[in-house]
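User: quick one
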Amino acid sequence: MGDADVLDVLVSEVGPRDGLQSVQRAMPTAAKVEWIRALAAAGVREIEVASFVPAKLLPQMADAEEVVRAARAIPALTVLALVPNLKGAERAVAAGAHKLTLPVSASRQHSMANLRRSPEQAIDEVARVCALRDALPRDRRVGVEANVATAFGCTLEGRVPEDWVIEIAVRLARAGADAVGLSDTTGYGNPAQVRRMFARLAREIGAERVGGAHFHNTRGQGLANVVAALDAGVKTFDSSQGGIGGCPYAPGASGNIVTEDLVFMLEAMGLRTGIDIERLIAARAIVADALPGEPLYGHLPDAGLPKGFAPATARPRES
Amino acid sequence: MGDADVLDVLVSEVGPRDGLQSVQRAMPTAAKVEWIRALAAAGVREIEVASFVPAKLLPQMADAEEVVRAARAIPALTVLALVPNLKGAERAVAAGAHKLTLPVSASRQHSMANLRRSPEQAIDEVARVCALRDALPRDRRVGVEANVATAFGCTLEGRVPEDWVIEIAVRLARAGADAVGLSDTTGYGNPAQVRRMFARLAREIGAERVGGAHFHNTRGQGLANVVAALDAGVKTFDSSQGGIGGCPYAPGASGNIVTEDLVFMLEAMGLRTGIDIERLIAARAIVADALPGEPLYGHLPDAGLPKGFAPATARPRES
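Assistant: Done. Structure below.
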């Protein structure tokens, strides 16, 4: 594994947050930390380790501070935390997160159901979090990424107008977000739409501020959407080990894209992720042991690597 | 549903052949015919209905003649039959198939194991089948498509040199095949390779002679590979209802891409397949009834269509 700057694509693991928050049982803190360490040891450079929501809403995330502190001690790992609001951001910063991610739902109904506020109010909250960031001393500066949820459709509203999604993204960039990503919260997105929307996002806010693509595999389109997003220049993809996870407020929307299958695809395409696939697959055992009976998804772990497979990360870089 | 010429993409259903030949039990002939009729009624325009191999090798295909004759009676359906050799081609032509497809494996080891002959011998056999075609009276003329199997790698040999795959495709075109497709028999392909290989194929034999793309979903890359192939100009995709099927001689290679998920993706992308998704999904019941306990795959049938989904086929065409 080389330095982070030699990566072609950043795989941002969201299993410990998006995955675990959709599982009824809480994974013990020690297991979370073991899992995060194993992922980092496999070469994962960024992990969304926790969500700073009130523990009464998501008891699975009650140990967010402890998990962030432990993850923070892992070298060369960017520790990402989801924060729904300023209060969550203050907690995450105090715990030592490197980067905060805030969801802003483009669907008004989903926004009210999920965050109990309008998209406009959610954008204002992002502005407040950016002000918090700007007030921090330089050596404690954090990154702020905003993510437009239900950007490709909503189980409650159906189609979400693309102009409105882009308008929200532009407002988030103006509010000070370092990067703005798009999330297919409901698994509604298709490759043509994904390519069009990310290309438009880059034109509107600048390619350097385009954040991650967050796809769900609800209708089996997850990796197809990744191919389209790559074409549009996207460099960061969310995924979760074993494909666990989903949005508890979007009925039918279950399952992030599977990290193992994503990393295999990218490496096979010649794109360096920095991740060792064998070690990544080995980390599944930690999840299986800590949450017995919980389904783990993924084709690659069953089928195995192709004979003679040469991952991009292991190849010497052409100069 | 309009005429075949308004399709943007042809989905060539291979379940009754590729799917059923990998299932141990034979589906009763009446159920096969009912399934083929239901698929055609849903708007599927081309179905690979049988394989003309000796019945002692594949008892599931012992009724190939009967199935072809029944399928031939369905209006607006192209009846495709797999034929391993001249003898199979003669049988398929006598039964009334519109089009023959011949596999030629690029992997020498796979070719010997699967067809008991070398790639060169298999190309010679395609030439003989083309001579048979040319000798038929005009009103009984059939199409001959050749398919390069293990074009993206082989479970026995590992990497298959891309130059060799293209060389075989060129020889097949010279031998007289009307179209030449590429098959990812083993589920080894990745989107970068798929795009590169199909683009190269079109340059070498002409875009109008590029046949179908046949992908397996062994490692979850099936639809991602379709997106890449679309970019390279491919217009025909093989898939099987419920994702049943695979190559019995390639260990670990199971499962064609799922027709339901493929059609959903294409229609969502604005590409007309002519297929009614609801009627397509309804046809699964015939397979489930005829082969109880046989696993049927697919994300869309479980998740359902997105709220407000507007398939391309149902939209008025912009002129």
